[in-house]
Amino acid sequence: MTRQEHLSYFIRLHRTGLTVTLLCALIVLYPLVQDNPYTLGLSNLVAIHVIVVLGLNLFIGYAGQISLGHAAFFGLGAYGSAIGTVTYELSPWPTMFGVAVLVALLALIIGVPTLRLSGHYLAMATLGFNLVVYTVLQQWDEVTGGVSGFYGIPSLAIGNFVFDDEVRFHYLVWAMALLSLLLCLNLVRSGVGRGLAALAGDETAAAALGVNTQISKVKVFVLSAVLASVAGSLYAHCYNYISPASFDIFVSTDLVIMVVIGGMGSIWGSLFGATLITLLPEWIDVFESYKDFVHGGILVLVLMFLPQGFVTGLVDLVKTRQALRRSRHAAS
């Protein structure tokens, strides 16, 4: 093999590791290049959305299910951490992980009966759950602050090092996003991930091959809820203020759009989808006023021309063209 072939083989063999390393380098260097607090705040919001979307993509893209209520778990994580740290004066880190455990139990209780449904019935059930949680957050003034929101949430800290500015929080939240990314990458390449892929392809065939479809769906639903809860806690401690409007059904819809645009069943696509939909209103001001229409239009266009999702569709297109080019060379 020539040196170029050796290099090409090495890159193919270690493609994931090299991509993660490059992403880590970009994350470390970004605050050194861009020190605007507002821009860093947007980057931090992208990382929070990445954590939620990674879990949701496991549920939609790999398990082949649909959820229009993941903003509820996002909100429960945020309000759980806020109430625990402010009302009961608990330590933020144990509260965050304690809330994640409680959200996991709630997702388990909801998931066991709900995931017996499928298609639009499941979508309506998860949407109803989101509406219930949103109404509770909005109406239970004595506990949640109601429509006025919840103030005074403390910043996270490790010892005397407090994550109280955008740069410090950038490194924390992106480290959590990378851990979530590595967790999902390893999961989808494991036997569990292959079982989920079979489940998404054909549930009956997966069951015939020995996959316990009901338990698999519940497990991935609980995992996606835990990731959403952790992201919600990070959101609360980052902005020190939360309100019910940040966790309504429109947020759930945006999360699904992030999954679809990035590519259902594409872990790396989750990063692209979360980044695009989070930053799009900031890039073009008019999008802020018509955000829902623009997001809907983008979703329709992607489903029409790249039904696998933007990233997955582009990758498939490149692979197809490379295969055609190789076949032409072989024929000549």
Automatic annotation (TrEMBL):
It is found in: Cell membrane. The chain crosses the membrane at residues 12-33, 45-64, 71-88, 94-112, 119-137, 143-162, 169-188, 220-243, 255-281, 293-318. The keyword Transferase does not apply. One of its GO terms (cellular component) is plasma membrane. The keyword Nucleotide-binding does not apply. GO terms for molecular function: branched-chain amino acid transmembrane transporter activity. It is a multi-pass membrane protein. CDD domains: TM_PBP1_LivM_like (cd06581). Pfam families: BPD_transp_2. It comes from the Bacteria. Keywords: Cell membrane, Membrane, Transmembrane, Transmembrane helix. This is Inner-membrane translocator.
